[in-house]
Amino acid sequence: MTKTDALTAVKTALEGAVIVEPLLHGDSRGWFYESYSKRKYEALGIVADFVQDNRSYSQKKGVLRGLHCQTEPFAQAKLLTCTKGAILDVAVDVRAGSPTYCQWVKVELSAENKRQFFIPRGFLHGFLTLTDEVEVLYKADNYYEPSADRSICWRDPAFGIDWGVDDPVLSEKDSAAPLFQNSDVNFIF
Questions:
Q1: List 25, 41, 68, 143, catalytic entry
Q2: Pairing of strands 86-93, 123-129
Q3: pLDDT tens, position by position, 119-130
């Protein structure tokens, strides 16, 4: 665990994937916290030059978005936060040569806990909504490139992710996503 005066970073079992817990300043009026400070994040070892913010909304509990990535040279690191509701956020290390290759971690992000999850390049990412009315905001360090967008099967046995659901609500793209072994996703550690 690493701290700055406004943040705590909790390392996960996957090198580079980090849970960030902000320091809230509150009183009878409500609360305030810094949701991003490049200087403070770099002090925690989270180095990314974010160039794009994205926002996602899901109406219902049980929506699963993922597993997604962009192939090189358009790979993206992401910093996610759930601003309304709650999600189960999952990162899968798919960097060939990594000691945690094909392993995954999950973290609950919610409007209540205000945690953030940093996912470096070379990872698949997905999330499951745990409540109705969910909004997720995330920063990316590379621009969206449709030709590099990839989706991998959310229940790929190569990963064995415990999502806690058997029949999530999926997009057409995610329903048709291939297994990892049948994809052209190829990151190097």
A1: 68
A2: antiparallel
A3: 999 999 999 999
Q: How many CB atoms lie within 10 A of CB 48?
A: 19
Q: Whole-model pTM?
A: 0.94
Active site residue 125: no
Assign 4 a pLDDT band (cuts: 50, 70, 90). Answer: low
Question: How many other C-beta atoms can be found within 10 angstroms of the C-beta atom of residue 142?
Answer: 20
**Annotated catalytic, 36?**
no
For 45-75, write each residue's pLDDT tens digit.
999 999 999 999 999 999 999 999 999 999 9
Structure tokens at 141: 């360090």
Report the 10 Å Cβ neighbour count for 51: 11
Which residue is catalytic, options 125, 138, 143, 144?
138
Q: Are 85 and 134 in contact (CB under 8 A)?
A: yes
Fold of 49-188: Jelly Rolls (2.60.120)
Q: How far is CA 160 from the centre of its chain?
A: 18
CB atoms within 10 A of CB 2: 14
Domain boundaries, the chain: 49-188
